[in-house]
Amino acid sequence: MLGAIFGDIAGSVYEFRNTHNYHFTLLCKDSQPTDDSYMTLAVAKALMDTYGMDDETIKKALVKEMQRIGHLHPDAGYGGRFYYWLQAEQPEPYNSFGNGSGMRVSAAGWMYDTLEETLHAAELSACVTHNHPEGIKGAQAIASAIFLARTKHTKEEIKAYIAETFDYDLNRTLDEIRPTYAFYEICQKSVPEAIIAFLEGNDYEDVIRRAIALGGDSDTIAAMAGGIAEAYYGMPETFKEEALKRLPEDVKDIAIHFETYRK
After folding, report:
1. How many degrees, rounded to 5, is the angle at CA 225 between CA 189 and CA 7?
2. Less Cβ around it within 10 Å: N or C end of the chain?
3. For residues 226 and 221, what is the distance between their CA atoms, to the nearest angstrom?
4. pLDDT for 212-254, tens place per residue?
5. Under 8 Å CB-to-CB from 168, ≥6 apart: which residues?
């Protein structure tokens, strides 16, 4: 999960100031967690707290933790409809297919013993807000890629599964995508691109750099790609330390607990 958080932090300064320079500065003093990290932590805590429980209990916990952490960090860059949802007394899903469902799902890819459980948890994590089929699909694609990566499947196997199951075109290259790529905050236009960044990468840092240098919604693409890359390659301890160092104290313990919980 720290792989997703580090990707978000590294991409945070490039979200609205895109770079296509692969050799960009990976971290600077302004690199910080955004809504991607906070909601990733919220999902992780909810899933840990309700492991093995029924769907309604899990969904209630997801809503509770997203709202709790969202209220602690209200200026983290949430989308308009999601921000309204965070403030609602009785929040309801709003048929979104935004990439928020994919950016926050990485914990589901780590926690379960089977692909079926992983897909189900990913759906639950999405449907409390992003209950559009494309929103659910985006979450499931990222979570299943993480599950397959951590269970030692090859990139060819991961690519084949994602393409066949979710009908994403993964035969494009980042070089082909980049010239016309824009700022897309929807799953259909960012989840496949994040997976392609992972497929093209050679190690964890390389994946993060490729994801951010694509442009677009840089922090979210890097969070999604980084979650998969951590599961496949691992990540440098120095990057883990940087991610933890830049998390506020009121959520850092969730990340630390998850690192031990999933082992």
Report:
1. 115
2. C
3. 8
4. 999 999 999 999 999 999 999 999 999 999 999 999 999 999 9
5. 141, 162, 191, 192, 195
| Residues forming beta bridges with residue 98, ordered by sequence position | 186
| 142: amino acid identity, one letter | I
Q: CB neighbours of 120 closer than 8 A, spacing ≥ 6?
A: none
Provide CB contacts within 8 A for 142, sequence distance 6+: 102, 105, 106, 109, 122, 191, 194, 195, 224, 227, 228
CA separation for the pair 121, 223 (Å, rounded):
19
Q: What is the DSSP string of 118-177?
A: HHHHHHHHHHTT--SHHHHHHHHHHHHHHHHHHTT--HHHHHHHHHHHH-------HHHH
DSSP 262: T
Per-residue pLDDT tens for 170-205?
A: 999 999 999 999 999 999 999 999 999 999 999 999
Predicted confidence at residue 263, as pLDDT, reads 57
- pLDDT for the residue numbered 112: 97
* pLDDT category of residue 261 using cuts at 50, 70 and 90: confident
CA distances to 161, 162, 220 from 183, in Å: 27, 23, 11
Helix pair 35-49, 249-261: axis angle to 10 deg: 50
b/e map 27-58, b = 16+ CB within 10 Å: beeebbbbbbbbbbbbbbbbbbebeeeeeeeb
Q: What is the DSSP string of 15-40?
A: SSS----TT--S--TT----HHHHHH
